[in-house]
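Practice problem: predict the structure.
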Amino acid sequence: MKRTDWLLETRKMRFEEAYVSYKRGNLTQGEAALLLCLCDRTFRCYLNRYDEGGLDALLDKRLVQVSYRRAPVDEYRKQVVRSTNKILPSLVKP
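Answer:
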């Protein structure tokens, strides 16, 4: 498991715990936010997102989107072929 995946899963588990405690009345919004190292306003935004779309709505969109700077696959393959053609002849001794 990658570190980013582990952090995401941990963040989801911690939010669920804080959310349940908040809904039961054991924690205030401020206390739940402190538990998650968030400010009150961010926690309220998370509450709204969670109520509308569930746990998947809290995912960081930057982790699942493909970068707009990423090169197309065919262009990447051409570049790999060019670089190997330059390297391989220099490795062969006459």
